[in-house]
Design brief:
With 1269 residues, this protein is of the alpha+beta class. It has 44 helices and 28 strands. The N terminus is likely disordered. It comes from Eublepharis macularius (Leopard gecko).
Length: 1269
């Protein structure tokens, strides 16, 4: 992070360190057990947690970074105090921490924890008393039951051994006369920027001064005063040298156009996780999942957390960020928001014992065992393989293995080797891993070694001194040079890896600005309305990306970090650019400048990072030529006799000299020129301090939607009231998120529907819909896991459903369980109907449980949500689930979201609003499952027999396939069948074999219902099937429409999905006789308009992304489809319909023209023209004959439909229309004013049809089955 705290008066924010802190045991209050840390008292007293205190901190306070005593104490010693005896390992440990304030600004802490002998007799006696009590308890429990309960360390002993109790007592004992007691103490620097390496070196030198046999050159106060008041922050782009106790320390800061400062070695993060794992965790962080890091070592938690968040540039993590979660804050794992937290693992505990409140969306990272658990359905990072390849080249160049390696804890080993070596020959300063591998660390997981270790400890042998020396890669050169080289290598590796990541984002979002929707109004009104506004054109952006990256990108552009990035872009028109954004934009400009390719064109080739060398050189130059040197530490005006020195003990510091800095201006203060002051003022302005900006602060907080204002738990105050308030914030946040998500789902869907009203089925981009639904599933999981009493299974929602199901089945209330109204009983003239579909929560659960494709509880919960959403029952089902209050009380704590009645009701109401639109999120995702369907054929009884004597058959087709021909049992009009998911249903072919006496059949419609989702389709027919009646057809192709269930009717007609196009109505499709009636006859203008609209719809269909196109069959053969529009053209001016009491159809005219073409020679002006005409004639005749000879009993209107479909598919209609218009038969069969006899109309018709030439039209199999052309 570049800037942290806003600058206060003078030059104070330019100081390198803000505070020096000392934490440890308070001799006055003695041993206080730390209840908040949740330690159990079965553990031996040396293993228990006791409260630590901040013993001193200098200065007392800084106004622009107030000292937060509780937070600092908790993070300096997250486990509290720990005690050791002379037989235990007492190596110093280094770790760092971060405090994120509520406004998102950060402060870094760097801590060295070491062990100091306890001199207070009182504390030693208290420890001995605790031991005597503990051993007495252990003894009685062992006598009571043969199995003894031991703490995790003792459990590595052989439990079956009869002497185990004696062994354990000896191992865990503390005898005031025999043992020396040590207690942990921490020294800590708190700084505005993460100069980890420099702070670590300073603390190590301070510690060496304390443990060394010789006193330090100056009193410790001089060094602490120097770093607090006399060492400035290096200016951007410069390096700085200051002095520790023994040797100088160098640090450097990136310039304004470089990547922001990051001092945590990425080498370590890659070594700990391995390249592949790190990319997967990085993807989870980008998609704002819940990430939990798990390690015994605090510094590892920080290294991985800071490493991964550094790589996010130009984006920034916007949610809860606590890389070290103190034991007393474990309830924060219950937070139902995205988080990135680090949890210290206890020695000996394994992952399975870790009870986490929610795991449906959790990425669990076990750092020590190089193992990660990923959320289900995690999309891949774009170009992942090329990306990994590029990163591995950088890593291998630096000799870093690509797989995670079992290397010992950096803080334990390096520090131990540093401190134990003689000062004279150690010039390393903790920069590179020593070649000595700590044997105990390396084999820690080995059971046998663990026992040996325990045994050795009891006999007083220190096994951890045993070491294996790794072979040196080259002869040892001058140590000092090598040390600096090692540090430089880490810096170079850091910057090169970060450049590769930054380059990836520069390539992926190189033209993001084109899709930013700039605010039309002024800043204040933009901030006020921020929530209602879309500020990025997501649909256009996604349509511009290549297919494989869409699953990742569609999720990523919905995240808070992306929204904030775009907000910053829009805000930059009114104020100074965010530093991250400024650097990122300048990189895009640079890339465009160097790139020959047009910036607007996406390239599919992977482009490697080209700036690695120069980035590394910039750092090398800064570190070889130091720009600034700070004042040397010097003697202070101290009272005589203070600053006394006693080896092994940190002295009591003289507070009056450390409380304030020097009064005169330091030489580096005067450098703060007017330009700097102007910058500070600008920054102050942008940091929104000052009264007139209170309003802006309020808007900004609200604008940053959920998570931003919750993103930091207060570490200091842990009273029940504060915890309750935090939970209340979470409840409000969840409700707000639900409101936003449902609103977004509605607006998206309805927006698309409004645009497409009447043009095929309305559909928000399939991809976007999937993303929104996935994020709704995630939200529901988070709501269901908030405030759980006991966690069961990975999906809190599914486990609640299962318990509800068990209770219901136990009470055998299934028969009476609330039944939702299924689609209404649909009566037709015959009184025949589809039986009501019984709908209950349990039956929907059973459908999901029967799906063998889904293997996990999280998957089942997601499938159940999708099914309920598609059935428009989500809100109703969840209401039913929560109506069992006894169960809710058993499962949830009082503060849980699901037990806050008012919020719960609002939440269900928001979900109810989703019933206003049609989702196919279950049908379209689970495409391979077998689904039961029910079909009913409804004849028109008044005019024909209800039952036909012939053998009827049916074939149902959908977007995903068809059933094949199924015979319908005689005298049955309703049947059920099972087949693989057909998707949305499109057509039904219905026919019979014309046998028996009552072979003529007048069918009103066919109804088909999906018995799982309840979707019902109506296929209108309204025509005869039979020889010698109507157009003589024995089979018909019917086009389906989705019938809305009664429940949507209540939601208001305005917001319903526009009806899909259906089969042409009876009037439209009956033979020409009916069209002579005055009412139904459209005029020439309407007919031409109809053609235009039909063609336009087909063009629109092809302009949509492939996955989002609806059914082309509907656009060709539906009610306002192309076939019907052309039929009207051909019917216009058709002469008297009946000749000798026989109906005449368009097909009769078509057959006449074929006969004419086949018998007449062509005349044309030129040979070429004749040839052209001839090919057109022959293809036309070939198609018509193929349709006539097809082994199908299709009537004349059906044949015309096939001809139009084939002509459209093969782009032949514009050639055929002029042939028909010029054929002599037209004068006999059409009146003079007919459209086909008007040259201009025919020409415009040809032009309109030519617009379909460019499209690859694929016809549904059911339309042209059996026609061989």
């Amino acid at each position: 992070m570049s800037s942290t705290a806003p600058p206060g008066p003078g030059s104070a924010p330019c100081r390198f360190a803000h505070y020096f802190v000392l934490c440890g045991i308070d001799a006055d209050s003695g041993l206080e057990p730390d209840e908040l840390a949740g330690e159990n008292f079965d553990q031996s007293p040396l293993r228990r947690t006791f409260k630590s205190k901040v013993l001193a901190h200098y200065p007392q306070n800084i106004e622009w970074n107030p000292f937060d005593q509780d937070a600092v104490n908790m993070l300096c010693m997250p486990k509290g105090l720990s005690f050791r005896t002379q037989t235990d390992n007492r190596d110093p440990q280094f770790h760092s921490f971060i405090i994120t304030r509520e406004d998102g600004s950060r402060t870094y802490g760097f801590v060295l924890t070491f062990y100091e002998e306890v001199t207070s007799k009182q504390i030693c006696t208290a420890m001995q008393t605790l031991y005597q009590m503990h051993n007495a308890e252990q003894c009685s429990s062992v006598c009571a039951s043969s199995s003894c309960s031991m703490d995790s360390l003792a459990s590595s002993l052989d439990e079956g051994d009869s002497t185990s109790l004696a062994k354990m007592q000896r191992y865990n004992s503390y005898d005031i006369n025999r043992d020396t007691l040590y207690v942990s103490k921490s020294i800590c620097l708190i700084a505005p920027l993460p100069f980890m390496q420099a702070c670590k070196k300073f603390l190590i030198q301070l510690y060496k001064a304390v443990t060394s046999q010789q006193p330090p050159p100056l009193p410790l106060e001089s060094y602490i005063h120097n770093i607090l008041y006399e060492v400035p922050l290096p200016p951007p782009g410069r390096s700085l040298k200051f002095y520790g106790v023994y040797e100088p320390i160098v640090c450097q800061r990136p310039g304004p156009n470089e990547l922001p400062l990051s001092d945590y070695p990425l080498r370590e993060a890659f070594e700990l996780l391995g390249l592949e794992n790190l990319i997967q965790v990085f993807t989870c962080v980008l998609l704002e999942m819940q990430i939990l890091l798990y390690s015994q070592d605090y510094q590892r938690l920080m290294t991985v957390a800071e490493g991964i968040t550094t790589l996010l540039f130009p984006f920034q993590w916007q949610h809860v960020y606590v890389p070290i979660l103190p034991a007393s804050l474990l309830h924060f794992l219950d937070a139902p928001v995205p988080y990135l937290m680090g949890l210290q693992s206890k020695e000996g505990t394994d992952r399975s014992k870790l009870e986490l409140p929610q795991e449906a969306n959790l990425c669990f990272v076990d750092i020590d065992n190089h193992f990660i658990e990923l959320p289900e359905e995690l999309p891949q990072f774009p170009n992942k393989l090329d990306f990994i390849q590029e990163l591995s080249e950088v890593l291998l160049q630096f000799g870093i293995p690509l797989e995670a390696t079992l290397h010992c804890s950096e803080s334990a080993t390096k520090l131990k080797n540093l401190v134990l070596n003689e000062l004279a020959n150690d010039k390393k300063n903790g920069n590179i891993p020593n070649n000595t591998l700590n044997m105990y660390e390396l084999l820690k997981g080995n059971e046998t070694i663990a026992r040996l270790q325990a045994l050795a400890k009891r006999t007083g042998v220190a096994v951890d001194k045993m070491s294996i020396t790794a072979p040196m890669a080259e002869k040892e050169r001058d140590v000092k040079l090598q040390c600096e080289e090692g540090e430089l290598r880490d810096y170079k590796l850091n910057v090169q890896l970060r450049e590769v990541f930054a380059n990836r984002f520069t390539q992926m979002f190189s033209d993001y600005e084109a899709f930013v929707i700039q605010a039309a109004q002024d800043r204040e009104s933009w901030l006020t309305n921020r929530e209602q506004m879309q500020n990025f054109d997501k649909a256009s952006f996604l349509s511009d990306q290549s297919e494989p990256y869409l699953p990742f990108l569609s999720h990523f552009i919905e995240t808070q970090m992306f929204a904030t990035f775009i907000d910053n872009k829009i805000m930059s028109q009114w104020e100074e650019k965010d530093p991250f954004l400024r650097v990122f934009d300048s990189r895009i400009d640079k890339m465009r400048l160097y790139n020959v390719r047009a910036p607007a064109l996406r390239t599919s080739t992977y482009q490697k990072c080209s700036t690695l060398k120069e980035a590394a050189q910039a750092i090398e130059q800064r570190l070889t030529k130091i720009d600034h040197t700070a004042i040397h530490p010097h003697l202070l005006d101290m009272k005589i006799g203070q600053g006394k020195y006693e080896p092994g003990f940190f002295p009591k510091l003289q507070s009056d000299v450390l409380a304030t800095g020097p009064t005169n201006n330091n030489r580096w203060v005067s450098r703060s020129t007017t330009a700097q002051r102007r910058k500070d003022r600008l920054r102050q302005h942008s940091e929104h301090i000052g009264l007139d900006n209170d309003l802006r602060e309020k808007y900004m907080q609200e604008a940053r939607t959920l998570g931003k204002n919750l993103r930091q738990p207060k570490l200091s105050d842990l009273s029940p009231a504060v915890i309750a308030q935090t939970n209340w914030k979470f409840v409000e946040g969840l409700l707000k998120e639900c409101r936003m998500k449902t609103k977004r789902m509605l607006v998206e869907k309805m927006g698309h529907e409004a645009v497409e009203l009447g043009h095929g089925e309305a559909n928000i981009t399939g991809l976007e819909e999937n993303t929104l639904i996935a994020s709704l599933c995630d939200l529901l999981e988070r709501i269901w896991s908030h405030g759980l009493q006991v966690k069961q299974g990975k999906s809190a929602l599914w486990s609640h459903l299962i318990q509800y199901q068990e209770r219901e089945e136990k009470h055998e209330h299934l028969a009476d369980s609330p039944v939702a109204v299924g689609p209404e009983r649909r009566k037709s003239d015959t009184g025949l109907m589809l039986p009501t579909l019984r709908v209950s929560l349990i039956s929907d659960m059973r459908h999901i449980q029967n799906m063998s494709e889904i293997k996990t509880d999280v998957g089942r919960a997601r499938a159940w949500i999708r099914l309920s959403l598609e059935k428009k029952l989500l809100s109703q089902h969840l209401k039913q689930l929560l109506s069992n209050q006894a169960l809710a009380k058993k499962l949830y704590k009082r503060y849980a979201f699901l037990r806050c009645e008012e919020e719960r009701e609002q939440f269900l109401y928001h979900l109810l609003s989703l019933n206003a639109v049609n989702y196919f999120c279950f049908t379209s995702v689970f495409t391979t499952i077998v689904i039961p369907y029910r079909t009913v054929i409804i004849p028109i009884k008044k005019l024909s027999n209800a039952i036909t004597t012939s053998n009827p058959w049916i074939c149902v087709s959908g977007e995903l396939g068809d059933t094949g021909i199924m015979q319908i049992p005689k005298n049955v009009l309703e049947m059920t069948f099972e087949c693989q998911n057909l998707g949305k249903l499109t057509t039904v072919q219905l026919g019979h074999d014309n046998s028996g006496l009552l072979a003529k059949w007048l069918v009103d419609c066919v109804m088909v219902r999906n018995e799982i989702t309840g979707h019902t389709y109506k296929f209108p027919c309204g025509r005869w099937l039979g020889k010698g009646v109507d157009d003589g057809s024995l089979e018909r192709i019917l086009i389906g429409e989705l019938v809305s269930s009664t429940s949507d009717e209540d939601l208001g007609k305005q917001c319903r999905t526009p009806p899909q196009q259906k089969s042409p109505t009876a009037a439209r499709r009956l033979s020409i006789t009916t069209l002579t009636g005055k009412n139904t006859k459209p005029n020439a203008g309407q007919i031409q308009e109809g053609i235009g609209e039909a063609v336009n719809n087909i063009v629109k269909h092809f302009h949509k992304p492939e996955k989002e196109r609806g059914s082309l069959t509907v656009l060709l053969c539906g009610e306002s489809g192309l076939v019907v529009a052309l039929e009207q053209v051909f019917h216009h001016g058709f002469k008297s319909a009946r000749i000798f009491h026989k109906n005449v159809f368009i097909w009769d005219f078509i057959e006449k023209t074929v006969a004419y073409f086949e018998t007449t020679d062509q005349v044309g002006d030129s040979e070429e023209e004749v040839l052209l005409q001839k090919t057109s004639y022959t293809t036309f005749c070939r198609y018509v004959n193929a349709i006539n000879t097809a082994p199908r009993n299709i009537g004349k209107d059906g044949k015309f439909q096939i001809l139009v479909c084939l002509g459209t598919r093969d782009h032949l209609l514009p050639q055929w229309i002029p042939l028909l218009a010029e054929c002599p038969a037209i004068t006999r069969m059409y009146e003079e004013n007919a459209l086909l006899r008007d040259r201009m109309t025919v020409n415009s018709l040809i032009r309109v049809l030519q617009t379909l030439q460019d499209f690859n039209i694929i016809l549904e199999g059911s339309l042209i089955k059996g026609v061989d052309v």
